[in-house]
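Its record is retained below.
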Amino acid sequence: MSYPTPNPPVTESLTRIAKRLTTSFTRGDAHRQRLSEIDVRIVVSGTRGKSGTTERLYDVLRSRGYDAYAKITGNHPLSLYGGREHEINRGERVTLYENVRELRKYTPVDALILENQGITDYTTRMMNETFGKPDVLVVTNVRQDHRDTLGGSRADIARAFARATPEGTHVVSGEQDPRLQAYLERELETVGATISHVDVPDEHADVPGAETVYGINEVLEAIDEPPLPERVLDDMLEEFRVDWHSLPGGRVYNAADVNDVESTELVRRSLVDDEVVQPFVYLRRDRRARTASFRDYLESLADDGAIEQARVAGAHADLFAKKTDLPVVVHDGDAEEAGDVLDDALADGWPVLVMGNTVAEFMRDLDDEIRRRTEAVDGHQRTDDSEQCDSPRLSVRSEDSAADRNAHENPIAPNQ
């Protein structure tokens, strides 16, 4: 009778085996310790404006002497430290643990500002509770995006944000809808969190993203820092103002970057009063809920007389056209040139408002075409202005006071 040859003896030390077996239980201890040693911890969540808000908060705190670190996520993830941008190299699989790896490179720091990269209610909560543990959680706004993962309505999305908030956290909310504000208050009370709402003045209520600018002062108040001066807020708001690009064939504005219907509507209102526009919507195969929201949005605009026709391209464009009574022109983004589509849209005589999604080669080509034509028109205009000048233009500027010079040099530091 034969017996199998026994396996070779285990040569790995008991110490290494024990360390490997306990890794899953202790891998977060070092990160939790780093977080506990940071004086100010801020996580920026919400639907729109997270990256910009994260960067502005980093700039403000750094200007005030904080040794600050910030992480921006999305398609071009960055670590911000020491006044420099550091690219984050990702593999094929993106996980929340990149926050552990990146923070380890730059700690110890005084202030931490993280953009929440979660797109489901679970990952959003994990980002807050485990990887950020914020003193202050910023909810920039509540818009209809990621409806497949965060919820089918704005109330559902607001609930997801609220329930992802750790107990004892203070929430700064930029959402301007009074009904959602009250809803957030009730939901946050159940999890033991507090909330303050960003107040946007009436004169800036239609500026897309204004809530993210005014929200900075709410965050500063929450961490016992002086507010930004009004003139600094005004300078920041200038970045959000929108205007048509005037091309030889008409006017166009590309609002596809915002890619949710509430933000798109803010852009439309900023561009027009009662003028009819023509939407061009690019659809993504993996954003069916977003496609449905844009169909409903266009139908509501048509009912209000704000549009008479739409043009669409991308995934299921023919089906989109069949599912609505609105007149729709369908384009083939794989076969048609972006410049030809733009020409066709402008030829109808309405200003063209581009919306929907940006992640497609066709949309990159369209954006390049709009930029190229805009630069050509601007260059021609500058040439004409130069030829009409008979003498050099002199710039007259009064002498700044010492206080004014200091303010120009460090505009986002607190008033002395």
